[in-house]
Amino acid sequence: MRLKEIQLNSKELRDYVDLVGYEKDQTLTDLREVTRSLGDASIMQIGSSQGKLIEIICRLGNFSKCIEIGVFTGYSSICIAKGMVDHGKLYAIDPSEQYTKIAREFWKKAGVDNKIELMLSEGNEVLDDFINRGQKGEYDFVFIDADKANYIDYYEKSMLLIKSGGLIMVDNTVWKGKVLDPNDQSQSTATIKKLNNTIASDKRVRHCMLTMYDGMTICQKK
Fold it and tell me: What is the CATH number for 58?
């Protein structure tokens, strides 16, 4: 049986996706330009097609209570908030005042700042606080895109916080192809490999790994 393989290099494919693959948003385009000016750090921003997918999923799910772990300059926050119901609340967690200052500016420009509460702290601290305050099973959606060393902790704590039928989306699960390199023994790569294996065998979820951009895995809690 013939396999349907895409015979295009990633640059050609990404250019085509950017041309016809998603609805454009001027505020997000402007934010991408500002983020690009940060230099190498700009690689932490999610892809435009990923952002649109997140928005559509949040819209389809009619989500009202969400968590984002890793804000950076606020691109994914805008996408989540745009997709949520009008009275929804996104708890956006990030310890960086430098990057979230840009995020707050663009949340306002996008008209979604009223939906977002910035938690200027480390991810595990906020998640532990939510759990200790008895919020297990209360959240519709969690997006994980932060420090890779804590990905497994973030995933397990998110599993406690989301309700049955809720979603966890994890970014960077292909990790620039490093998950395929047996010689890469770095902590980040090892952690992502371990998380991917954990999700693959996790009977609590239905999951699907997407290879778009740097990889993103969608998990639905049963």
Answer: 3.40.50.150
| Single-letter amino acid code for the residue at 118 | L
One-letter amino acid of 96: S
- pTM (2 decimals)? 0.95
Angle between the 26-36 and 48-61 helix axes, to the nearest 10 degrees?
140
CB count in 10 Å sphere of residue 57:
18
Query: What is the DSSP secondary structure assignment for residue 13, as one 8-state letter?
Result: H
Q: What's the total number of domains in the chain?
A: 1
55-69 pLDDT, tens digit each = 999 999 999 999 999
Residue 205 falls inside a structural domain: yes
- Residues contacting residue 214 through CB under 8 Å, at least 6 positions apart: 47, 171, 172, 173, 174, 175, 176
- Which pLDDT score, from 0 to 100, does residue 6 have? 60
Q: Assess if residue 3 is contained within a domain.
A: no
